[in-house]
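Long-time lurker, first post. I've been practising inverse folding by hand and with some scripts of my own, and I keep getting stuck on stretches where the structure tokens seem ambiguous. Below is the full token string for one chain I'm working on. Before anyone asks, I'm not after the true native sequence, just a reasonable design that respects the backbone. If someone could post their per-position residues I'd love to compare against what I wrote down in my notebook.
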């Protein structure tokens, strides 16, 4: 099977963004809701305000775009973004561990075959290059600012920086906004072979889509992600704030601890019993980081072995079998049954305990993935990390609304059916249209398996960005 590890690499974005982005807008800060679900293009989505007897309230009217992907089948979730006038559409991987948003450029010297045609600046009447000056790295002609990102599996993306109108579909409450993005000239590795067009950076940094929209005053400084469950897919992304459910579990997220979205994890309990570990184990290097662009989860070695042993003891009546790839010693169990909704009757509950004793419970689908060759068998989706960082990828937050409240330096977790979330937030029961008649792109829903690149910088140094990146080969 594919595997992810952590390696420290350097990715350079030498660019001073002071004064680059115009701020100030008369628009009110409204949340923008972008569903991430696996469904038929003709499916009807009916509005519903309650689910499982609980109410999820919206602070503003919502908007959405349809997507087609799945965490384990594809290794990522994507959202639709339209760039330019008239709009050119792209399927971008949702990545909280990256800052730059980028798409393949029309003149890319080395770009793979992706889901949509490459971006053509000449066809956009609103496109402007970010002109070269002393504050950025310049292209060979010394005319345009450039960016470069390198990832641990030796994939990379590099190109020029441009500015254009970004829009999010006809149903968006957010009007199109000008923003800076990357236009790729070269991509290698997984970036070259993946089906998705590029990356939508939601991390911290002035090139992040979030930071640019917040700086303009068009959304509040918060966003949420909700990934669908095992074998279902689906979910939603909310840009802007929503009123948190009363039983949402929050933990502090220190923006000075690392440039990433971290949480204060202190203990892990398996079947109600804490793992015998020093709580400082989850605070090594970058601490405990949430990264939507990573498929699985990675614990420091001692924590992983304690977790593996605790789960194995609780399911000792199951037969332990080999995984798909003989190169890796996956921890897999057969005989658990094919019905994933019944896994909690076989596998133990796992709890994450935060600094002030807040407890958030994980279902088996949050730490298991199905064995694709043996029916009724499942493997641990949590692995040992060669680094002291604790990295929690998308598998840990399936069927969980995760709110990144950047304004208040906290992150919240709320168990829910993410595939049904849009039904509770959406007032419309009709499929969303494309932004305009100009959109005639390929809308194939088949995306080849791959993993989103995701940057985890060590420190922010003026003129550079150091990356710590999990990856799949």
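-- Answer (accepted) --
I ran through it position by position. Result:
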């Amino acid at each position: 099977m594919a595997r992810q590890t952590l390696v420290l690499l350097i990715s350079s974005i030498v660019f001073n963004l002071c004064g680059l982005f115009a701020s100030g807008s008369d628009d009110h800060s409204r949340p923008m809701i972008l569903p991430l679900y696996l469904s038929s293009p003709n499916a009807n989505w009916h509005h519903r305000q309650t689910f499982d007897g609980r109410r999820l309230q919206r602070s503003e009217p919502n908007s959405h775009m349809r997507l087609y992907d799945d965490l384990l089948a594809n290794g990522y979730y994507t959202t639709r973004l339209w760039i330019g006038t008239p709009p050119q559409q792209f399927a971008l991987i949702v990545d909280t561990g990256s800052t730059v948003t980028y798409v393949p450029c029309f003149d890319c010297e080395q770009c793979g075959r992706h889901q949509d045609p490459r971006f053509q600046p000449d066809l956009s009447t609103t496109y402007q290059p970010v002109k070269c000056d002393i504050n950025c790295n310049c292209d060979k002609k010394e005319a345009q600012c450039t960016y470069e990102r390198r990832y641990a599996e030796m994939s990379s993306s590099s190109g020029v920086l441009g500015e254009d109108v970004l829009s999010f579909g006809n149903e968006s409450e957010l009007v199109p906004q000008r923003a800076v993005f990357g236009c790729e000239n070269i991509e290698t590795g997984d970036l070259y072979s993946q089906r998705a067009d590029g990356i939508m950076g939601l991390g911290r940094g002035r090139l992040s889509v979030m930071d640019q929209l917040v700086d303009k005053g068009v959304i509040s400084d918060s966003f949420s992600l909700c990934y669908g469950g095992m074998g279902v897919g689906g979910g939603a992304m909310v840009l802007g704030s929503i009123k948190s459910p009363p039983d949402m579990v929050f933990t502090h997220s220190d923006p000075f601890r690392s440039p990433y979205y971290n949480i204060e994890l202190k203990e892990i309990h398996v079947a109600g019993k804490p793992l015998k570990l020093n709580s400082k184990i989850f605070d090594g290097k970058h601490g405990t980081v949430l990264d939507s662009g990573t498929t699985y989860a990675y614990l420091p070695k001692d924590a992983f072995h304690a977790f593996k042993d605790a789960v194995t003891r609780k399911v000792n009546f199951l037969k332990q079998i080999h995984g798909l790839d003989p190169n890796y010693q996956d921890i897999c169990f057969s005989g658990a049954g094919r019905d994933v909704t019944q896994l909690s009757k076989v596998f133990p509950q796992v709890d994450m305990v935060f600094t002030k004793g807040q407890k958030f419970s994980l279902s088996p689908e949050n730490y298991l993935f199905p064995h694709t060759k043996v029916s009724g068998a499942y493997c641990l989706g949590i692995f040992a990390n060669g680094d002291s960082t604790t990295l929690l990828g998308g598998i840990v937050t399936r069927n969980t609304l995760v709110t990144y409240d950047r304004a208040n330096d906290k992150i919240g977790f709320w168990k829910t059916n993410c595939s049904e979330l849009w039904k509770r937030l959406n007032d419309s029961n009709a499929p969303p249209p494309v932004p305009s008649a100009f959109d005639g792109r390929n809308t194939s829903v088949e995306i080849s398996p791959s993993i989103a690149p995701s940057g985890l910088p060590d420190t922010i140094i003026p003129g550079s960005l150091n990356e710590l990146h999990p990856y799949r080969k």
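A couple of notes from the structure itself: The longest strand covers residues 156-167. Residues 334 and 374 are 7 Å apart (CA to CA). Happy to go over any region you disagree with.
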